[in-house]
Amino acid sequence: MRVFVTGASGFVGSSVTRQLIAAGSQVVGLARSDKSAAAIEANGGSVVRGEIGDLDLLAGAAREADAVIHTAFIHDFSNYKAAADADKAAIDAIGNALSGSGKPFIVTAGVGVTPKGPLRTEEDPTNANIGRMSEVAGLAFAAEGVKAMAMRLPPSVHGPHDHGFVASLIRIAREKGNSAYVGEGSNRWPAVWRDDAAHAFVLALEKGVAGSRYHAVGDEGVPFRDIASVIGRKLGVPVISVTPEEAPARFGWMGHFAQFDVASSSALTQSRLGWRPEGPGLLEDMEHGTYFEPQTSAA
């Protein structure tokens, strides 16, 4: 199978690429730089040069592939609307190119796209009031003859060289001289080991059903206070509580995410895909992984 992967050099996409190739697929990865291209080739993939905004190029690569996995996203939270709009435009270009083909098309979303609830599941619909509409845009193509599916990821996809939310919290704690949570810190973040998340994409490609939502979730909900406590202890700085009003100044663009309470289940995904999270949980990874080692760049 020839699989076109956007974001193939990224944190999740690079693991997806390696696992697809290990399973016998060919991967064509989108690369916007020499560094990205080298990373994709080092993982065994071939490269198509371009950016997520090159819609004709995306459409052409999708037509030539047997399946598409879309993991790319412009992580500019200071201009989130523009990033979300670019994401939707890319999904529409790929979906239209695949229309009527029956080919698999997996888009990446987040568990936070669902309405509030005590434990979010794969059956929960997308909240129409969110800014990023990748799931809605992608699943719409299930009615257009595309095997369209959505893979929802938790706020923390963790592992070596993670440069996402947890790494940002550590950086902020270093800068401020303390590690903070909001209020009582009882809000919960689900999490997943990076390679487990990638394996969920591979299984969805093999076994998934058009129109389905899947949850790549290992830890259902880690209290944010526990995350802040590990950071404080590992850095040797105080752990403090800030009010919701103080959160934006304290966390910057992460002020909203620091208050996420999005505990989520993957029970249906495990049952339907035969997927099992096997890697360490988030707190274990923070304790024994690479988060507090000197940071180096990686694909």
List the helices and strands and how they pair.
Elements: E1 2-6, H1 11-22, E2 26-31, H2 34-42, E3 46-49, H3 55-64, E4 67-70, H4 80-98, E5 104-110, H5 134-139, E6 147-153, E7 156-158, H6 165-176, E8 179-182, E9 188-193, H7 194-207, E10 213-215, E11 219-223, H8 224-235, E12 239-242, H9 247-251, H10 267-273, H11 282-288
Parallel strand pairs: 1-2, 1-4, 2-3, 4-5, 5-6, 6-10, 7-9, 8-12
Antiparallel strand pairs: 9-11
Order of helices and strands: EHEHEHEHEHEEHEEHEEHEHHH
Summed over residues and divided by their number, the pLDDT gives a mean of 94
CATH level-1 class of the largest domain: Alpha Beta
CATH homologous superfamily annotation of the largest domain? NAD(P)-binding Rossmann-like Domain
Give the low-confidence spans. Answer: none
Top keywords for this entry?
12 strands; single chain; 3-stranded mixed β-sheet; 7-stranded parallel β-sheet; alpha/beta; Rossmann fold; 299 residues; UDP-galactose 4-epimerase, domain 1; 2 domains; globular
Task: Write up what this structure looks like.
- The chain starts with a strand and ends in an 11-residue tail after the last helix.
- The strands form three sheets. A seven-stranded parallel sheet has the order 3-2-1-4-5-6-10, with helices on both faces. It has a three-stranded mixed sheet with strand order 7-9-11.
- It folds into two domains: 2-156 and 192-218, NAD(P)-binding Rossmann-like Domain (Rossmann fold, 3-Layer(aba) Sandwich); 159-189 and 220-263 and 279-288, Alpha-Beta Complex (UDP-galactose 4-epimerase, domain 1), CATH 3.90.25.
- It is built from eleven helices and twelve strands.
- Helix 3 (55-64) packs parallel to helix 4 and helix 8 packs parallel to helix 11 (282-288).
- Helices cover 38% and strands 19% of the residues.
- It is an alpha/beta fold and 299 residues long.
- The mean pLDDT is 94.
